[in-house]
């Protein structure tokens, strides 16, 4: 659609107004998103966020002129993008977009989002030329009765690599949809803070797992550093008891007696002499006369 200079100015003016009315401004990618999926997402987002699709140059101009702090978002306006305007939490929007995704068939040349594996088992494919196609796609298959059977799990595309035409054909015939399609938030600006995709795209499960791991590491550090608090005190007492028992066992093994038993104190020399004299027999007068 060709826009006149007047139309462009009007578009920028309206967009600047909307940018000023919403506290959250986000850039989302619609790369490879079919129009029917885009329209469905846009419809379902009503009440949560407004989706703005227009020329990239006009979006850049509006971001530049509306609010100075929004200039950072311009670096994320690459490829097929839209602006999301909302007063909702950006993390809630990112979660909603993750949940509203779907699968579709791959196209030749597309990059595999993950390792694509065709599982072992029976197929609905009849024997024939399909065996040659499976072989070209590096799928280990054989004929079993009236059906073609995949002998073992076969990886047909590695993550990050382009998907070949032969693989695309086999995936379609096996009804495998490896490509995920969704509107993906690249960055969001909210209350003076810019959140990037690597933060926005973390699920609640990942957040909980990360917090649990951080708590455990902090607890371990407090125990080994001897820092007492309500979480570490019990573990510190247990640690002290184990160390005391270890020292006790070491003393016993070195001395050959229980650690708690006291060694008999050696008596002074004078006491030893007195005891020695006391032990000698006393000679009587009768014994002296006999002598």
Walkthrough of the structure:
The chain is an alpha+beta fold. The chain folds into three domains: 118 residues, Ribosomal protein L10, N-terminal RNA-binding domain (Alpha-Beta Plaits, 2-Layer Sandwich); 63 residues, Molybdopterin biosynthesis moea protein, domain 2, CATH 3.90.105.20; 46 residues, no CATH class. Helices cover 45% and strands 17% of the residues. It contains eleven helices and twelve strands. It has a five-stranded antiparallel beta sheet with strand order 2-3-1-11-12, sandwiched between helices. A three-stranded antiparallel beta sheet has the order 6-8-7, covered by helices on one side. A hairpin with a 2-residue loop joins strand 11 and strand 12. Helix 1 crosses helix 3. It is flat and about 100 Å long. The N and C termini lie far apart (149 Å). The model has no long low-confidence stretch (mean pLDDT 85).
Features:
Alpha-Beta Plaits, flat, alpha+beta, 291 residues, Molybdopterin biosynthesis moea protein, domain 2, three-stranded antiparallel β-sheet, five-stranded antiparallel β-sheet
Distance between the termini: 149 Å
Q: Name the helix and strand elements from N-terminus to C-terminus, one letter apiece.
A: HEHEHEHEEEHEEEHEEEHHHHH
Give the biggest sheet.
Answer: 5 strands, antiparallel
Number of domains: 3
CATH class of the largest domain: Alpha Beta
- Supply the helix-strand structural class: alpha+beta
Percent strand equals: 15-25%
Radius of gyration: 40 Å
Instruction: Supply the CATH architecture of the largest domain.
Output: 2-Layer Sandwich
Question: Which percent range fits the helix content?
Answer: 40-55%
Shape: flat
The number of helical segments is 11
CATH homologous superfamily assignment of the largest domain: Ribosomal protein L10, N-terminal RNA-binding domain
Average pLDDT, all residues = 85
Instruction: List the strand order in the largest sheet.
Output: 2-3-1-11-12
Low-confidence stretches: none
CATH fold annotation of the largest domain: Alpha-Beta Plaits
User: How many strands appear in the DSSP assignment?
Assistant: 12
């Amino acid at each position: 659609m060709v826009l006149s200079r007047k139309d462009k100015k009007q578009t920028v003016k309206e967009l600047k107004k909307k940018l000023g009315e919403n506290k959250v401004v986000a850039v989302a990618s619609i790369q490879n998103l079919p129009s029917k999926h885009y329209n469905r997402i846009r419809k379902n987002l009503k009440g949560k966020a407004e989706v703005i699709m227009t020329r990239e140059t006009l979006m850049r101009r509006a971001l530049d002129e509306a609010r100075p702090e929004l200039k950072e978002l311009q670096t994320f306006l690459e490829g097929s993008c839209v602006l999301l305007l909302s007063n909702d939490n950006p993390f809630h929007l990112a979660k909603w977009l993750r949940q509203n995704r779907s699968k579709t068939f791959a196209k030749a040349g597309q990059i595999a989002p993950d390792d694509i594996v065709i599982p072992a088992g029976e197929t609905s494919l009849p024997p024939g030329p399909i065996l040659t196609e499976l072989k070209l796609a590096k799928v280990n298959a054989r004929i079993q009765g009236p059906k073609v059977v995949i002998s073992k799990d076969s990886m047909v595309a590695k993550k990050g690599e382009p998907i070949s035409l032969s693989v695309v054909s086999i995936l379609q015939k096996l009804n495998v949809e490896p490509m995920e399609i969704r509107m993906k938030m690249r960055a969001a600006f909210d209350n003076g803070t810019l959140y990037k995709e690597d933060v926005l795209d973390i699920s609640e499960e990942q957040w909980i797992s990360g917090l649990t791991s951080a708590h455990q590491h902090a607890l371990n550090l407090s125990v080994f550093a001897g820092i007492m608090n309500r979480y570490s005190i019990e573990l510190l007492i247990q640690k002290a008891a184990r160390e005391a028992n270890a020292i006790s066992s070491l003393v016993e093994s070195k001395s050959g007696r229980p650690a708690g038993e006291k060694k008999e104190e050696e008596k002074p020399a004078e006491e030893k002499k007195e005891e020695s004299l006391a032990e000698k027999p006393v000679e009587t007068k009768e014994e002296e006369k006999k002598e």
